[in-house]
Amino acid sequence: MTKLFGCLEGGGTKFVCAVGSGPGQILEEVRFPTTSPAETIGQAISFFKKFNLSAIGLAMFGPLDLNPASPAYGSVAATPKRGWSNTDILGKFRQALNLPVVLDTDVNAAAFGEWYWVPDNRKLESLVYFTIGTGIGAGIIINGHLVHGLTHPEAGHMRLPHDRKKDPFPGICPFHGDCFEGLASGPAMHHHWRQSAEQLPDGHPAWDLEATYIAYALVNEILSISPQRIVLGGGVMERCSLFPLIRRKVKDMMNGYISSPIFTGSLEGYIVPPVLEKRSGILGALAMAKTIKKTN
Amino acid sequence: MTKLFGCLEGGGTKFVCAVGSGPGQILEEVRFPTTSPAETIGQAISFFKKFNLSAIGLAMFGPLDLNPASPAYGSVAATPKRGWSNTDILGKFRQALNLPVVLDTDVNAAAFGEWYWVPDNRKLESLVYFTIGTGIGAGIIINGHLVHGLTHPEAGHMRLPHDRKKDPFPGICPFHGDCFEGLASGPAMHHHWRQSAEQLPDGHPAWDLEATYIAYALVNEILSISPQRIVLGGGVMERCSLFPLIRRKVKDMMNGYISSPIFTGSLEGYIVPPVLEKRSGILGALAMAKTIKKTN
Of A56, A61, A206, A215, which one is least surrounded by beta carbons within 10 A? Predict the structure, then answer.
C-alpha cells in the first residue's frame, strides 16, 4: 500500500492543505482563508484527521524559529500578521495528530520541492530558489539538504548597489529601506511606479530596473555560494520577459569572471522558472514529509 | 603507529610543505619561493617523497578547476601568475607520489582548518571563513563539508552599495571595478590612500570605510546563507581594531532584522579572528588529507 502524507502551505492570506504521495497523486486538497491561529490551525488539523497519514510537512510564512535548541522552536517569530507572533505551529500539529511533523519556511519548502520532484534538479549538488513577489526570499539546497544555519537564509534583505542618481526611489523595507526586497518586491514596484507590477507593460523602464536589482542579487548569490542552478518563482517572476533580461544582465555583471562553461552560454538552463509553477511550496511540503528523517 | 599526512599551501610568492598528524604534531616543515610550476612542484614532491605518507592535502592559490567532470579538473585556471595557467596540480602530485591527494583553494582549506581543528567551531552546522588581504575570498563549511557547487565561492567579487559621493574611489578590480575586492583588498587600500594598510594609523578614515565595506559583505553573506560563525583572516584583518568596528556596523546594518539571540549581543563570538592565526591554510590542508574520503 502506498503511504499517504499530509502537506500544508500556510500563507498570510490562505492555507492550502493536501494529502497524497506525489505530484500526480494528490488524493484531496482544500484551501481556506488565514484567520486566527486557533481557527486556521484547527481547520487544518480537522482536515488531516480524516486520513491515515505517515507524516506531515508544514510550509509556513515566516519568520520562524527553526533552531531546535531554542525554547520557541517551531513557532512563528515576530510577524506583522496580527495574532500570529509566537504561535507554536509544530507543537500544535504534533500534539493534535501524534504524527511526525516537519516545519520549514514556505520558500525553503519551495526550494526543496523544486529539487526533490524535478529529476533534472535532483542531480545537482546545489540549487537556490528565489521567490520574488509580495516579499523576497531564498531557499538553498546543498547536498540534498536545506541550509538553515543560524536561523534561515533571508536573502531578500541583501544590500545591493543602488545608484540614486538613476533611481532616486528610497525603497520601502521598514528595516533597511533600499535592500533587495525594499527595491524590488511587488509592493516596492507598486509604490515606485504607482501601478501594480501586473499593470506595467513590457518595455516599461520599471522592468529594466527590476531586472538590474534581481541580477545584482543573483550575482551576489552566485559569488557567495556558487549554486548549480537558480530557480526564480513568485508573482513578479510571472512576467516571463524578465528572464532573458536578468540572464543578460547577470552575464554582463559577471564580466567573464566565473570560468564555468555555463557562463559562456545564454544561462537559459541556469536561471530558470519553477518547473512546479505555483505548486513548488505545497509539493515541497509533501517532499519534506516524505523525507522527514533526512530533513529533521 | 600514528599515520602521517602531507600538506601544502601554495601561494603566489611562497610554498609551504609540511608532514604531520595534527597542529601540535608537525614532524617537518619547509618553505620555498614560488618560481616555475615545474621547479616549485618538483621541490614539493621531493620533500614529500622522504616520508611514508597516507595522503596529501593541497591548498592552492586559485582560481582552480574543481569540477570532477571537467577535463581540466585539478588544474589552475587562467591566472595572472606567469606560467601557472592550466597547470595540472592534482595529476602531477598523484602521478609522482602514487598516493591519495586532495586539492582545494587556499581559502577553502583555511575554512576547513578553522572548522576541523577548533573544537568550538566543529560543533557548528555552518561556518564562513573570509580572507581579506592581497585578494578577498571566502570558504563555506556546511554540515562538515566545503561548498563547491558550480565552481567554488568567489565572495570577494560581490557587489556592494558604494556611495560615490562619500567615496569617489572607483575600485581596482580588473573585472568589476568597485566590487568588494576592488574596494577593500589590501592593494585597493594602498591604491586609494597612497600608503599601505599597515602604514595607515588607527583612527584614519580609511579604517572606518574599510569596516563599512566588510560589514556590507558580511551582512550579505549572513542573509544569504545564515552561517553560525564568521572567521575573518588575511593580512588586512591583522589590524585588530577592525573587529569591533565591523561588528558594530554589521549590527547597525542588520537593524534588528535577524531574530537570533546572537544579534542582541556584541557579536564578539560571532565575527572572530582565526584561532589558527596564519596557520589556517596549511593546517586546513592537513585536515583535508586526514579526511580525504569525506572531502573528495
Answer: A206
